[in-house]
Design a protein that fits this description.
The radius of gyration is 27 Å and the shape is globular. The chain has a domain of 338 residues. A two-stranded antiparallel sheet has the order 1-2. By secondary structure, it is mainly α.
Length: 560
């Protein structure tokens, strides 16, 4: 028996973990129980030293004092406050008025608002449930194809996985041992590309199948002018003006910030983009406020509504990301600033009541404790796993894979895709990723690129039938029975589970395409991260020798 355990200890360890999970024990306690049970078993059998868990209390204290993980409750609190202050409802109504006059406009609004919610809430469940409650009845009311409507909602909600400031990216950065700021910079362009891919798909369907996505009827367009015009010309003029000012400022910013930060290389493109949009947003908000206070009447009702509803959350998001990208604030400090900004926004709108604040704090505390317990459990498990040389066992699993580094990445993405159907991303990040990191490093894989691939892949698995979590979230809020619409008074048939599953397929294909693009174009990720010059050991020694020679030379001259 001892010989069998010595040879197969790691597989038996995983079998023990699977046993606890199958019987429904919480993941955090299953990890801790498996690690402790097999650790003590190994010590009794003489496989491990008696001091195996001696450093465990210090490790747990290190987890509790991890400043990187402190960003999780801040960003969670920011998102929950904005969600419960009905920001999503205001955003969807406003953006739908902008794009509603064209076919597919409602779907475009859902994608854009979903991306904005993803960047503020950072949690898939919150984004999908919010969009399902608000937008699905409206899309069904105006005759949208059900598969397109449900697929658009679930896909837009899963953007919370990969768009900064995502909780997934914070957790992955901690597990990969990399900077959260670098993870955010690496994920920005791929995330925006995925949003663009969604929008192109919606536009294509609107052209090929126009009856699937009808435009809003005239009676549903509530921000028209007295003259009968839509107000879009005023909105376009303001957009062009602010975009031109933002672009011009980015050119000035290049020289100013390079001097301020003592930087000799050009500023990354995502940094210039973030700061330019922030300046343009401030300008638009200022012009709209001056117009309202002075009663100038220079901008349309639609433009004013878009500015006051859309710009404040945009400014908040871009200020948080901008300070992190510039290195002015750590992710934790950026999250604290975001939470404070959410408090101010909700207060100014008169929507930060005691019940909203209490609910937001309770949800934030619950999620933070959930993450902390899983991390502590995975740490206990890793003590036994590492003592049994589990990382060597995992490395041997990939020794025979064809294709080298690319074969490893393809296999890992396939594995994460399958696991994402059954377990949450926290479990994948705390259990699977630490096992794969040593192998990835040994194969020379850039860990930022590796982390973005995993995040984008987990986003894909959230949509995959029959176990995709986003599908369950939408199923929980979609109509299960026929109902009478409150506006049109027409009978609306119930939304079936099959329609929700079918709607996700096209977006799964789009996400797989995006994963492939990132896999074969790592520059999309690494090209946005400011490179730090690495100095070799030999060069350091040479520099020290030169300084020593100069010092001795100067000393000799002084003595002479």
């Amino acid at each position: 028996m001892i010989d069998f355990l010595q040879v197969n200890f790691v597989p038996v360890l995983f079998a023990g973990l699977l046993f606890f999970l199958v019987f429904g024990f919480p993941v955090a306690f299953s990890l801790a129980a498996t690690g402790l049970a097999f650790g003590f078993l190994g010590m009794e059998l003489g496989l491990f030293p008696d001091v195996l868990f001696q450093a465990l209390p210090l490790r747990v204290l290190g987890i509790m004092s991890n400043e990187t993980l402190l960003a999780i409750p801040f960003f969670t609190l920011m998102g929950i406050i904005l969600e419960r202050s009905r920001m999503a409802e205001d955003l969807l109504e406003t953006v739908a008025q902008v794009f509603g006059p064209v076919r597919g406009g409602l779907a475009v609004a859902v994608i854009l608002v979903g991306a904005l919610l993803a960047a503020t809430t950072g949690v898939v469940a919150a984004a999908v449930i919010s969009m399902g409650l608000i937008s699905l009845p409206i899309m069904l009311r105006y005759g949208y194809n059900r598969t397109i409507a449900t697929g658009t909602i679930t896909a837009s909600g899963t953007l919370a996985q990969a768009l900064p400031p995502s909780l997934v990216l914070i957790v992955l950065a901690d597990q990969l041992g990399r900077s959260v700021g670098d993870m955010y910079q690496g994920a920005l362009i791929p995330g925006l590309m995925l949003v663009s891919l969604y929008l192109l798909f919606i536009a294509g369907v609107a052209i090929v199948k126009p009856d699937w996505m009808p435009a809003l009827p005239m009676e549903a367009r509530i921000y028209t002018e007295k003259s009968g015009s839509s107000g879009h010309r005023s909105l376009l003029a303001l957009f062009v003006l602010c975009a031109a000012v933002g672009y011009g400022w980015s050119q000035i910013h290049e020289g100013v910030m390079n001097g301020f930060l003592n930087r000799i290389t050009p500023a990354p493109g995502d940094e210039r983009f973030i700061m330019s949009v922030t300046v343009a947003s401030f300008l638009a908000l200022g012009l709209a406020m001056v117009n309202r206070v002075a009663g100038l009447g220079l901008i349309s009702r639609l433009t004013e509504q878009v500015t006051f509803v859309l710009i404040p959350p945009l400014i908040l998001i871009f200020l948080v990301l901008g300070t992190i990208f510039l290195g002015v604030a750590t992710p934790t400090e950026g999250g604290a600033m975001g939470a404070l900004g959410a408090f101010l926004m909700a207060t100014l709108r008169g929507r930060l009541g005691l019940s909203v604040l209490k609910g937001a704090l309770e949800s934030t505390t619950r999620l933070s404790i959930f993450v902390m317990f899983i991390l502590i459990g995975s740490t206990v498990f890793s003590f036994t796993f590492n003592a049994a040389d589990g990382h060597i066992w995992v490395e041997h699993l990939f020794d025979k894979l064809p294709g080298g580094q690319m074969g490893f990445l393809i296999f890992v993405n396939f594995l994460v895709f399958l696991l994402g159907m059954f377990i949450d991303f926290f479990e994948i990040a705390f259990i699977i990723v630490p096992m794969l990191v040593p192998v990835a490093e040994k194969m020379g894989v850039d860990l930022i690129w590796f982390g973005i691939l995993i995040a984008m892949n987990m986003q894909t698995s959230f949509l995959t039938p029959p176990f995709g979590f986003a599908l369950f979230y939408l199923r929980s809020v979609a109509a299960r029975h026929d109902y009478d619409d409150v506006i049109t008074k027409e009978r609306i048939p119930a939304v079936t589970t099959a329609q929700i599953y079918k709607g996700s397929i096209a977006f799964i294909v789009l996400q797989i395409i995006m994963v492939g693009v990132i896999l074969f174009n790592p520059g999309l990720v690494s090209g946005n991260i400011e490179k730090v010059e690495r100095i070799s050991k030999d060069k350091v020694e040479d520099m020290l020798n030169i300084e020593t020679i100069d010092y001795n030379s100067n000393s000799s001259n002084d003595n002479w």
